[in-house]
Amino acid sequence: MNPRRALITGITGQDGSYLTEFLLGKGYEVHGLIRRSSSFNTSRINHVYRDPHEASAGLFLHYADMTDPICLSNLIQHVKPTEVYNLAAQSHVRVSFDQPIYTGDVVALGAIRLLEAIRDFQDRWGYQVRYYQASSSEQFGKVVETPQTEKTPFYPRSPYGVAKVYAHWITINYRESYNLHASCGILFNHESPRRGETFLTRKISRAVGRIKHGLQKSVFLGNLESKRDWGFAGDYVRAMWLMLQQEKPDDYVVATGQTHSVREFCEKAFAHVGLDYRDFIQIDPRYFRPAEVDLLLGDSTKARTALGWQPKVDFQHLVTMMVDADLELAQREKTLIEAGHAVSTPKEQA
Predict the structure, then answer these.
(1) 3-state DSSP of the chain
(2) So which residues are the catalytic ones?
(3) Among 47, 212, 240, 335, which residue has the least CB neighbours within 10 Å?
(4) Which CATH architecture has domain 5-192+229-254?
């Protein structure tokens, strides 16, 4: 069996794409779980995906679903991975209030289905599989202390956060009950130009690009005073990998240790293109959560000490990176419109 074979659930998402690039660069054979849909959803990994029938191909995609335990078990038996990274989720916090049952099924029960498949594989074949569970700062929710560490009690404030708490604790339970090499990374907010357009930071950077090019007049947002610990997704996938290289599994907070408000993100994003955010932001009550999380700030001392990890991209660089990418996207969009071509545009515009 290839000693460097990884399986990634959620491979088509932001983190999955950066992790795929990282592992391929390390010489891994990478397998990814994708859901069947009526349209292709592999845009974030198309640049590294080659024909799976080629002998030299390093990336293979498999149809499967986190709600199907038999499918997951068959996939583990077929791929025989040495490392599994569980990044799959319905990960939009606001949407989780609208789809709480589905969120719980994919995020919480999906994790235990995958852990059961791994446990069965190890029992049957005797191969050790190292497992990474994508935990979240949303588990802290209504924080009981600041900053938050691995020992901070959880107080989730959304169906997504509650589901992540279950996935986190069931991973620890399997580690302690069945001696699995299973680690949890409690990742604080991490963004990039590959962030989905419905997520707050990307919604802002996308709006900046379109407003600058005259394609949009304003953007609707919710609570501008919420504060988050924002980092770069490309930095955070390194921490995931480092956790699975340790002799013993453990749980780690991954964060920058700095907090910034939504208002500050808007201010810097619009200022990067010479605009005043106050001229373009409109507050819409629809974007306030039923139960708000006001402040998240992580203490990643353990990860920095034990793993040797530290972020490379600071907040200002992250904001400008995202805005620059969306300026280019908006320019391409404008060019197509001027040429008379129909284009897909964000629904949230005015």
Answers:
(1) CCCCEEEEECCCCHHHHHHHHHHHHCCCEEEEEECCCCCCCCCCCCCCCCCCCCCCCCEEEEECCCCCHHHHHHHHHHHCCCEEEECCCCCCHHHHHHCHHHHHHHHHHHHHHHHHHHHHHHHHHCCCCEEEEEEEHHHCCCCCCCCECCCCCCCCCCHHHHHHHHHHHHHHHHHHHHCCEEEEEEECCEECCCCCCCCHHHHHHHHHHHHHCCCCCCEEECCCCCEECCEEHHHHHHHHHHHHCCCCCCEEEECCCCCEEHHHHHHHHHHCCCCCHHHCEEECHHHCCCCCCCECCECCHHHHHHHCCCCCCCHHHHHHHHHHHHHHHHHHHHHHHHCCCCCCCCCCCC
(2) 136, 138, 160
(3) 47
(4) 3-Layer(aba) Sandwich (3.40)
